[in-house]
Amino acid sequence: MIESLSENMLQRAFAPLLKTGQLEVLTPSGKVLTFGDGGQPQARMRFTDQRAVFNLLRDPDLNFGEMFMQQRIVIDKGSVYDVLELVLRHAKDVPDSKAVQMLDAWRMRLRPILQNNLRSKSRANVAHHYDLDDRLYQLFLDSDRQYSCAYFEHGDEDLETAQLAKKRHIAAKLLVEPGQRVLDIGCGWGGLSRYIAEVAGAGHVRGVTLSTEQLEGAKKRAANTSVPERLEYALEDYRDTKGPFDRIVSVGMFEHVGARFHNAFFKQCFDLLNEDGVMLLHFIGNLETPDFNNPWIERYIFPGGNLPAMSEFSSAIERSGLIVIDIEVLRLHYARTLRLWRERFMARRSEAKALYDERFCLMWEFYLSMSETAFRYQDIAIFQIQLARKQEAVPLTRDYIGPRRDALKVREQQIPAYASIAQTSRP
Questions:
Q1: What pTM was estimated for this model as a whole?
Q2: Does the domain spanning 2-93 belong to CATH 3.30.1050?
Q3: CATH classification of 119-422 is 3.40.50.150, yes or no?
Q4: pLDDT digits (tens, 9 = 90+) for 68-91
Q5: Are 136 and 189 in contact (CB under 8 A)?
């Protein structure tokens, strides 16, 4: 009776989603349910116990990842990415059930509590993810440790080339001039700040982070540059930073601010920016209406995170006194980045298991797989928002970006650390 009920529920849940490709679902009783049109990709998932079936149906956003980590859902054919792709690529065409709508509404009400990112909580949230064993990130990031979306000028570049292009693109938009003071909020391992000092020629770059591991790495790498005296790093909350600065850049940090603190973030940036200053904010945003953080990501990967919709952050910018000069939406660039990260991680999975354990490896595989499918099928993308205190801070048209990128590429050739990568770039 229970087996028959769960099979009927699985039929109702999966059949509307699987329009193309093929997914086989093996139930605990041994029955195989087949969905889709027999095309590609093809995958098979297996439930190891009856409760796992009901857990998935009750709350797939949270429980799919949890049960994959617990090996109560096992992928016997294909990969977990294939399963997620099969389920998600047509999911927007299928209306949510009333039960799902009620669960989503409850999670929206919880959002202010989960994103109450006061100083102490922000520090703990950052430590949860970014203070992992440093050797983990060596397994899948590029040599410069860019843990954010790369920039694919042609679409088929390798990771090193695309991450260098990202730094070049951002520096061009910042219009960095020799001698200027630059603030990097959420500097990570310092790759972008080093580029701004070494290649773009900034006079002084201050990077702030809440990760002790990243801070240590940034300081060590700065000492090996040609301009260590221009680089400064601090374990510091953005709310405590003192200015002023000619340029401000922030990459992959705004997602950790939380909607409640958008006003404080942009007001602080306004106060830190010189009258003629320029700011570039690069972050993951929601292309649709405001939404809650994925509950599995919230619990295991990025507690306190938020992917803001334009309607959420634009009003906070207006209230701060900053003005929007330019908005660029990088569609699918992060999907490509995550694909390369996942491939690199899986190629060195045994090393990750030696650092942690099998459960951690399953968690990380699910994180990278789910994130990629989200960028491909769930309308999230990278926003690059260019901000200033006055309209005259940047040229009248966007034509300046290309020539500045070209000039930066020429300077890269003069610095060995960048020249070796730039030489592989397509013209």
A1: 0.93
A2: yes
A3: yes
A4: 999 999 999 999 999 999 999 988
A5: no
